[in-house]
Amino acid sequence: MPSAKIYYDSDADLALLSGKQIVFLGFGNQGAAQAQNLRDTGIPNDKILIANRADAYADDAKAKGFIVEHDFEKAAAIADVLFVLIPDQVQPKVFNGSFVPHLKENVTIVIASGYNVLFKLLEFKSTQNVVMVAPRMIGSSVRSLYVKGKGFPCFVSVEQDGTGNALPVALAVSKVIGATKAGAISSSAREETMMDLLAEQALWPNIIMLFREAFNVLQKAGCSDEALCYEMWMSKEPAEIFERAAEEGFITQLKHHSTCSQFGQLRGALALDGVAARKHFEDTLYNQILSGKFSAEFSRLEDGLEKEGDENPLNELYRRADETELAKAEKRVRARLAGLLQ
Ligand code: NDP
């Protein structure tokens, strides 16, 4: 496979943003971090507008000295660059309903996740730029790394080049929020969404299932709930393993384990042919994700996901997950060892 192109600060020209009106739709996790980074890089405060409903997020933006607009239509009409930083599931309703009819013909729309673009849930005019600048970190890290003078991993792509200069603008946008400092990786909404959704819908479900079944087998073999919870995750050993994997290498980190553990892990992993897992991953990727089946189902559930109690389908899934032996045992252990866990 070809290597991805990596863009650095020297590839981007901030002059492209000079005099442009920047609008942030949303001042949450990513919005608050990216708006502050952008202002600290030198965009004047009077060229930044936070579009947000009148509530705590808007109050936070005002407290941080930003100009806030509650009327989305007014905000849309003046935007040269629009960052869409509200949750993915509400973007179609808010963006298509309140922004699309009022946006400039040559606006650059910046998304931080590929989902709604890949599944064509947002409406764009062919003259508009659509670019993805997608940090691979939560907002607090996007901000704290910037403050420390460091970069953060980020994907960048052009999804629609309406003006003919979408890539330079995407790179300027990446630089101004601090994303090209460590190198922004050229990607696409398709790639980003495939990786995100496959991890969410197949990789992590398998990991949850493997922990659940290992727990069940060991519990049946006589291990105590306390010992199991600590051994398997409360000691934070899995977190440490993944941290080492990120820092030193996915396989290299094994060298920190005992010889017996290294032998057991490598021998065990190489003996598993992975055929069933591969089939499951391929089926999820092609028949559930790329076919649009999941996205259609999720869109249908959208209203329910805002509801309280039993009517919310997510709450029903939590209820079922809480009935597993692993979850029930953990609840007992946490209640009993509350002091130890603080
Ligand atoms: P948040 O959940 O933090 O967004 C909160 C913001 O969205 C607030 O300003 C909130 O304002 C606004 N909002 C929520 N609901 C509505 C609504 N119905 N109408 C108008 N505004 C609304 O989002 P994130 O920052 O987590 O995500 C933003 C984008 O960034 C998404 O595309 C996400 O995939 C992407 N992303 C997120 C990452 C993360 O770490 N969370 C990492 C990388 C990308 P109010 O409720 O006041 O209206």
UniProtKB/TrEMBL annotation:
Pathway: Amino-acid biosynthesis; L-isoleucine biosynthesis; L-isoleucine from 2-oxobutanoate: step 2/4; Amino-acid biosynthesis; L-valine biosynthesis; L-valine from pyruvate: step 2/4. GO terms for biological process: isoleucine biosynthetic process; L-valine biosynthetic process. It comes from the Eukaryota. InterPro entries: 6-PGluconate_DH-like_C_sf (IPR008927), KARI (IPR013023), KARI_C (IPR000506), KARI_N (IPR013116), NAD(P)-bd_dom_sf (IPR036291). It holds the Pfam family KARI_N. GO terms for molecular function: ketol-acid reductoisomerase activity. Keywords: Amino-acid biosynthesis, Branched-chain amino acid biosynthesis, Oxidoreductase. Residues 4-187 form the KARI N-terminal Rossmann domain. PROSITE patterns: KARI_N. Belongs to the ketol-acid reductoisomerase family. PANTHER family: KETOL-ACID REDUCTOISOMERASE, MITOCHONDRIAL. This is Acetohydroxy-acid reductoisomerase. It comes from Macrolepiota fuliginosa MF-IS2. The lineage of its organism: Eukaryota, Fungi, Dikarya, Basidiomycota, Agaricomycotina.
